[in-house]
Specification:
11 helices, single chain, binds nicotinamide-adenine-dinucleotide, Quinone Oxidoreductase, Chain A, domain 1, 7-stranded mixed beta sheet, Rossmann fold, zinc, binds zinc ion, about 350 residues
Length: about 350
């Protein structure tokens, strides 16, 4: 390692399931032969980080845990086997920290499905620290003209919704409902959908989120908190009143997962992306059959999806609505997120 890399750094550490996070100094890790060490400058805060801290999911995260998987920074050290990344390159730490690259899933670019995948901020420490490690083969390559602060949320939220929209099969000119549209993934989904030539029906709760969705380009906004008949309103917001061709479920509650098949257009596709704790999907078999509805899941994206999602951002086709706070204030962001009060994305600056 070079002399400028310190031995200690600031990090936010989850010591036990349920949290909170503790802002403290921890050792700077050393990259293995196939890894890089990234000086994380900014990291987005994804709801997944909160699920991880709260122990919401069936797979337990490592403990103690440094969360974070939208980390944008500069490569400061690399292992002996890394020859396609240079010190000084800009790179991003995403949810998929590494995978085996040899199993049948990896071989066909389905690396998120790799049985030995490493997950940033879940099974390995992530980007809520000043220096984080990732497998060189999997880091997102960030062109130098891309702003590290603004691009951070693209590294999970952007990639995930870009992939989800592609999985939905919706084509330019068609409509997509974005459920949870005022949150981090949702705000990005509106933008990617617009850039792909889709009409957007945004669904979330409250006026502030409605204004944000409209400002980002949503054609209509349906407020799940005040709507008297959400299914009818969503259908009516589409050109023929037949419902959207696709639904992206990004919400952190179960209810919309039960509702989506009621308003999706016949032959339409419901894509599950949000991961509310303990949630189940329920749909009437009769309707699913007679209206030929597809229900599927979509999980982050592969390396190609990553670079394509970043390229949309680089070309100015999507912008990220974000607010920046110091890494030391992460718990406050989690508190707001828990209350459903985050509009867009929070980014943490690791220097404060
Ligand atoms: P977020 O907290 O920023 O946004 C969630 C939004 O859902 C909020 O705006 C909230 O108001 C809204 N919401 C809650 N109940 C709703 C309802 N009944 N109808 C409509 N909207 C509702 O969270 P985020 O960071 O955007 O993450 C969203 C979810 O996606 C999380 O569960 C996260 O773990 C998951 N996620 C999945 C993947 C994947 O690969 N599948 C990747 C990243 C995140
Ligand atoms: Zn995420
Ligand atoms: Zn694999």
């Amino acid at each position: 390692m070079s002399a400028e890399i310190p031995t200690e750094q600031w990090a936010q550490v989850v010591e036990k399931p349920g949290g909170p996070v503790t802002y403290k100094k921890i050792p700077v890790p050393t990259p293995g032969p196939d890894e890089v060490l990234i000086n994380v400058k900014y990291s987005g805060v994804c709801h997944t980080d909160l699920h991880a801290m709260m122990g919401d999911w069936p797979i337990p995260p490592k403990m103690p845990l440094v969360g974070g998987h939208e980390g944008a920074g500069v490569v400061v050290a690399k292992g002996s086997l890394v020859d396609d990344i240079s010190i000084g390159d800009h790179a991003g730490i995403k949810w998929l920290n590494g995978s085996c690259l040899a199993c049948s899933f990896c071989m066909q670019a389905d690396e998120p499905l790799c049985p030995s995948a490493l997950l940033s901020g879940y099974t390995v420490d992530g980007s809520f620290q000043q220096y984080a490690i990732a497998k060189a083969a999997h880091v997102a390559k960030l062109p130098k003209d891309v702003d590290l602060e603004a691009v951070a949320p693209v590294l999970c939220a952007g990639i995930t919704v870009y992939k989800g929209l592609r999985e939905s099969g919706a084509r330019p000119g068609q409509s997509v409902a974005v459920v949870g549209a005022g949150g981090g993934l949702g705000s990005m989904a509106i933008q990617y959908a617009r850039a792909m030539g889709l009409r957007v029906v945004a669904i979330d709760g409250g006026e502030e989120k409605g204004q944000s969705c409209k400002a980002l380009g949503a054609d209509a906004y349906v407020d799940f908190q005040s709507s008297k008949d959400l299914v009818k309103e969503v259908r009516e917001a589409t050109p023929e009143g037949q419902g959207p061709h696709a639904v992206l479920l990004l919400a952190v509650s179960e209810r919309p997962f039960q509702q989506a098949t009621e308003y999706v257009r016949s032959r339409g596709t419901v894509v599950c992306i949000g991961l509310p704790a303990g949630a189940y999907l329920k749909a009437p078999v009769f309707d699913t059959v007679l209206r030929m509805i597809t229900i599927k899941g979509s999980y982050v994206g592969n390396r190609q999806d990553t670079q394509e999602a970043i390229d949309f951002f680089r070309r100015g086709l999507v912008k990220v609505p974000y607010k920046t706070v110091g890494l030391s204030e992460l718990q406050k962001v989690y508190d707001l997120m828990h209350e459903g009060k985050v509009v867009g994305r929070y980014v943490v600056d690791t220097s404060r």
